[in-house]
Amino acid sequence: MPDTQGKTIILGVTGGVAAYKAAELARLWIKAGHGVQAVMTDAAMHFIGPATFQALTGRPVLTDLWGATGDGMDHIHASRHAEVIVVAPASADFMSKLAQGRADDLLSTLCLARACPLAIAPAMNREMWANPATQRNLARLRQDGIMIIGPDAGEQACGETGPGRMSEPAAIFDAVETLLGPKPLSGKTVLVTAGPTFEPVDPVRGLTNLSSGKMGYAIAQAAKEAGARVLLVSGPVCLDAPAGIEKISVTTAQEMFATVMHCVNDAQLFISVAAVADYRPAQTATQKIKKTGKPLSLELLPNEDILASVASLPKPPFCIGFAAETENLLDHAEVKRKTKKLPLLVANLAQNVLGRDQAELVLLDDSGNHPLAKADKLTLARQIVSHAIELFNLSKSRQI
Hints:
By secondary structure, the chain is an alpha/beta fold. Helix content is 34%, strand content 25%.
């Protein structure tokens, strides 16, 4: 964990049952040596009292836009002395305020007038989370550079089960420590591939796979958080690139190969997450192939192996690969790692990962296997990038 002791954190608490978890989060930050200033909305005080946060933080809780300073400037003064604002829980209503730039209470005004990073930990009913309006607001907040932590999936206070639970305080704590910590990839360029490729058979059909791109986009965000310049080469997905990342969209494996080989000389690290098609049709029909009721044969040609091509360059970047298997995971993954001479490979069972929001992974390097417990993909991405940085720095020290 990076050394971030002594930071000042504004903890915003909005209305929701998960507000009780914010007290534990405040306790973790105080224990780590941070200063915490709690700011509560009127709705939050229906679930937990300000006295709880005042006792934990040793500071009066800010609740009113016309607060203790008497000049109505708490929304300015507070953020000028903070390294980060964290809103946990962040309700659907509060996310809407942020997306629209509204400022009708102290916390929303403070977030709008901030001079520091902002992170939110959403918490709401699963249907509220899935609602198109919430998802539009979420996309807008990501584009605005706001860090999104969670939510988790599981049993909810309403009795339903699904995504929308606020992440546990320990997970939020870790994410914020990463945000506040040193930037070990500052000055470095990381090239990431993500998503599937699409190999056209005719104008309306093609060969593809179930990759959603979520892990690749999470890796790109984690590398950006670590201070890197990130180039994201993405196949066709329904995702918005994290703020501050340079995205290049491609469709076919050949397009992805050409783009990667064009960009790779600028990169110190290459993280190959994309599920690239191994084969493409030898010919693409110019018109839709009509159904005849008879068997149809397609001749398939092998695509270039992007990761192997990069790893075999005379001066390759530090290469990290991904292996999605359906059986004998460790055996197949280790063969792939050694064959392609990779310092680090991330292995997973395809049926448990593709298209899902959570995953369970294993890291393979020269020292052995390192299992990563099941978690959301951004949490895993941060762990992968952290491990990669350690190996990258070790490889550089051996070259000196």
